[in-house]
Amino acid sequence: MRLIKFTTLFFLAITSVINAQNSKFTLADFHTYNTDLNDEVMKHFNRLSAGEKVAQLIMPAIGAYGQTEATIDQLVKDKKIGGILLLNGTKTEFTTWVKKYNSWNMEMGTLPYLYSADAEASLVNRKIKNSTPVAKANTLKTIKEVTEVATTISKDLNEIGINYNFAPVVDMSPNKTVGWRSFGHEPDSVIPWSDAFIQETQKHNIIATAKHFPGHGYVEGDTHKKLVYIKGEMKEVKNYPTLIENGVVSIMIAHIAVENETSFSTNGMPASISKEIVTDLLRDSLQFEGLIVTDAMNMLGVSTIPGSNVKAIDAGVDILLMPLNAAKAHSEILEKYINNEAFKAKVDESCKRIIRAKLCTEGDLFPN
């Protein structure tokens, strides 16, 4: 793994250890070359069946607008998922689910889950009812305020057991769908303030997520309702190199098509299923080595495309978020995993990356 700056690493190591006393590893270890961590990843990877490896890449949602508890229960018992998005519910409800599924996984000897939430400053109090009130992102005026908000949110997530925050929004503000959820419309505020939110979140041993790559701020339309386009220059890509250099662990890919004359054109397809965006741009050009997660796969910007679940993984995505049917997605991906060596290699690398993140956040819940 690429080394991040020593000063950032040292700061993260000291602070995150405080928040993860029972784990051998913390998020400060994720982007480092750590032989002990590497060995642990391989130990647990080699124990998994093909179906369990594929399952690590699938993350449905539970709660309002997600799947029913009965559906999630069955997916857990069948070992077909590797994480759960806690979507629209109460703090008590979410805490109960985390404890329940942790207990089930420990009884079954399966890997712990990544539990995610849309705990952005502008959404958290609606998404997690009874969470501590915070100011919306577009009303914050200083980095100090951003850090304080990230601290408050992270403490609530730690109490619930959520280890993966789909925040911050690093899009510029002109687009009305995401604008009020970001820190503004100037790189001078969006980049350092997003970085401050990320660093504070990851200090609490919670994975932070920069979104929505390659940029939702200057497009017209809402990807929940249709496929939208970046036409010409991808202006917001420049928001990401600093965040990558400073160790952000996750980036979310939007269902946005890119229409220009560069090698990164998506040919009318959303970025989330485009090798040109996921692998060629984000992995290879920007050298991002963390978790790549799709935006919700039930959004109309991608859900009407045949085979989109497999296409997203084939493009280089690690985590498939909210597929319309998680069991069907598992079956589709497993079939290609068994029959296509190149695809199998991609799934295996994603699986190892996910196990690494889990060891850094939930190491004390791993089977012996």
Notes on the protein architecture:
Helix 8 (187-203) links the parallel strand 7 and strand 8 (207-213). This protein has 13 helices and 13 strands. The protein has helices spanning 6-18, 35-47, 50-55, 69-77, 91-108, 124-127, 143-160, 187-203, 241-245, 275-285, 308-315, 326-339, 341-362, and strands at 58-59, 61-62, 83-86, 89-90, 114-117, 128-129, 164-165, 207-213, 228-231, 250-253, 256-259, 291-294, 320-321. It is globular, with a radius of gyration of 19 Å. The protein has 368 residues and is α/β, with parallel strands linked by helices. The protein has one domain: Glycoside hydrolase, family 3, N-terminal domain (TIM Barrel), CATH 3.20.20. The two termini are 25 Å apart. It has a seven-stranded parallel β-sheet with strand order 2-3-5-7-8-10-12. A two-stranded parallel ribbon has the order 1-13. A two-stranded parallel ribbon has the order 4-6. The longest helix is centred in the C-terminal third of the chain and has 22 residues, at 341-362.
